[in-house]
Amino acid sequence: MSTTDEDLDALGEHSKLRVLIVDDHDVVHWGFRLMLSNEPWVERSLSARSGEEAYALAERYKPDVALVDLFLGEESGPEVCQQLRERSPHTKVLLISGAGRISPGAAKAAGASGFIPKDWGAHDIARAVRMVGLGMTVFQPQIDAAAASLSPREREVLDLIAR
Length: 163
Description:
The protein is α/β, with parallel strands linked by helices. It has helices at residues 5-11, 26-37, 51-61, 77-87, 104-109, 122-133, 145-148, 152-162, and strands at 17-22, 42-48, 65-69, 71-72, 75-76, 92-97, 114-117, 138-139. The model has no long low-confidence stretch (mean pLDDT 87). The chain contains eight helices and eight strands, in the order H-E-H-E-H-E-E-E-H-E-H-E-H-E-H-H.
């Protein structure tokens, strides 16, 4: 993330964000809510444990950004993301996971503005939430072992094929 905290402060100087945390684990709710409560740019944080609960909260409170787990028990985070975006178009979604991955293309197709792993530091996760809430996208660079061994030209060709 090349955007500095000062850049974010300038962009969102008068913006207080409402954040919805959608995860099926209590410890995640408590952890993210505690972390976000210390941020001066957070107006309110809400928690949902399922898609249905998230949709109801989104329709009622109109969160600016929803932090949605990739796997919600039997539910799919990308499907919840699509439904959230349909029911609350104002809400931007940041997908997050501790175990899984999703390609930037698949996340964007679901309507997400980003995807990050849960093992990022608290400051980086908070920055990602704020960036998405302010209309930016945040995707962790994905370099697998095979791509790491490619020459710069081979990576360029692979990137063009992927597009």
